[in-house]
């Protein structure tokens, strides 16, 4: 079985570049692995992102994905993002797909399924006050749980949710809901399959495999990393004359007059920061503004879009004077190269 975390198809207002990253993960990793290992695929909730509206392009791409995977059983349990009402699961974004495709198994109620040597308890999103008791006859629980004291973001632990001490069971639990990969005793949050937002900065993402002809053991669950779009900080320090890159598989520092390959920035989501020397920077920003305009990239002169947590985290690490640009859609465009090469000229001057 291949275990896949929150997908959030249609995320970021159905951004097409993100959708194409998500589909590539299915077509290049998940589907070939399912075929070569003769595995089912299970998605542990939040298949879609939007609770209210279905984007037509996203809908058609997912229809094609299911048409292309009729030889594979795909289990999807409902997450909180898949449901329309807060107090019931019946109205959701997956009903139509489950009706249209026999190989798509939708779980909108708690139940037990069997796979190979394993009995699996499946627990879709729990409504307020809904009871959850682990059936001790199962080998594995799959769910979309809100457990207390797990990381909601990289730095913040959930203050609400189920207290795991009340569960009183050693049955392994694989869960969606929180997006960062984390494990505490018998509970493993799978994490998203790619870096959705800055909360995933520097986190390795991927999918999981277990041969279900054997009894499930959490310690033997295999993590398969997927290297795709990352969130990357580029810090331009005019005083130190360095350009530091954080968030790639390894952090890089480019010093004055050293050659740089711009290709490493392609396909990632970038934020470019400036440190110090605002007088020079101001001139530079004015230069860059003209470039950005032709690419529809917004210049963020203050850190206005950063949430407070990451702001505090950042502030403790750097004395960052300004965020220059937050490049959302730069997959193949040369804008990054433009900006970095001008920054390079600036530090080399
Ligand atoms: Mn989610």
Report on this model:
This protein is α/β, with parallel strands linked by helices. The chain has two domains: 2-225, Metallo-dependent phosphatases (Purple Acid Phosphatase, chain A, domain 2, 4-Layer Sandwich), CATH 3.60.21; 231-348, no CATH class. It has seven helices and 17 strands. The protein has helices at 11-14, 16-36, 56-67, 95-100, 278-295, 308-317, 335-348; strands at 2-4, 41-43, 74-77, 104-107, 111-115, 118-123, 140-143, 173-175, 182-184, 187-189, 206-209, 222-225, 231-237, 242-246, 252-255, 269-275, 322-327. Strands 4-3-2-1-11-12 form a six-stranded mixed beta sheet. Helix 5 packs antiparallel against helix 7 (335-348). The longest helix is centred in the N-terminal third of the chain and has 21 residues, at 16-36. It is elongated and about 70 Å long. Mean pLDDT is 86; it is low at 302-308 and 314-321. It binds manganese (II) ion. Manganese (II) ion binds next to loops. Manganese (II) ion binds at residues 6, 46, 79, 81, 177, 179.
